[in-house]
Amino acid sequence: MATITLTRISKSFGATRVLNDIDLDIQAGEFLTLVGPSGCGKSTLLRILAGLEEPNTGEVRIDGRTVNAVRAADRNLAMVFQSYALYPHLTVAENMMTPLRLRDLSWRERLPVAGPLLARAKHKSLRAQVEETARILEIEPLLQRKPGQLSGGQRQRVALGRAMVRKPVAFLMDEPLSNLDAALRVHMRSELAELHSDLGTTFVYVTHDQAEALTMSTRMAVMMDGDILQLDSPQAIYENPSDIRVAQFIGSPK
Length: 254
Ligand code: ADP
Ligand code: MG
Prior knowledge:
Elements: E1 2-13, E2 16-27, E3 31-35, H1 42-50, E4 57-62, E5 65-66, E6 77-80, H2 92-109, H3 115-137, H4 152-164, E7 170-174, H5 182-199, E8 202-207, H6 210-216, E9 219-224, E10 227-232, H7 234-239, H8 244-250
Parallel strand pairs: 3-8, 3-9, 6-7, 7-8
Antiparallel strand pairs: 1-2, 1-4, 4-5, 9-10
Helix pairs in contact: 2-3, 2-4, 3-4
């Protein structure tokens, strides 16, 4: 079943056409990478899916609902940013609570009388959710630290954890490993693949690194000049690239 469907998405910036009528079905629970050389339109496509950019034409559907008019914050997608964007003055636990607290606040405003009582009960379950998430990510020992006391890899897990507590339809990641050094980057590949299989949530992952895409994804969409040239499993693409451009980019023997 497709969780996310993009239909005939096109986008131009001024006279420059960046996406050419892209069709893409993203299956529930898959790890889909958008992979291709720099400038081919990966980030633009992801931003359109996230609601951070408007397409010129086309439709974005999430769980069967057209969301073109739905704000980014209301699409229930978790965009994990490269810079992690953690609050430096808050602990890891507080950072992970923040999106829940914000949601809780708007919920409380709608219930002026029963609100405070319910909020206290709810707060407990928020803490439980944060603890559960920390357990899955194996960052429980870090909950009382501040972001400045964490390594790059640990900050990444916290950023993921903060996104996870909202139970999003999908995680969207744009080159999340590109700030890390080479050894950690390779280590994080297997971590992310493992995390994906633990969670079972849909991942949509942008990278220009074909090795990353080949090792982590369930399926990869190879993009070039605003088109998806081939969409298939890493093995199928590696063994049977659809044309010479895919073969050259992937480095497969065709
Ligand atoms: P990728 O993520 O694959 O490197 P992008 O989607 O970031 O590619 O960019 C695709 C093309 O669109 C590039 O030529 C880029 O310069 C251009 N582009 C992206 N965002 C904008 C923008 N906001 N304004 C103008 N041009 C843009
Ligand atoms: Mg990009």
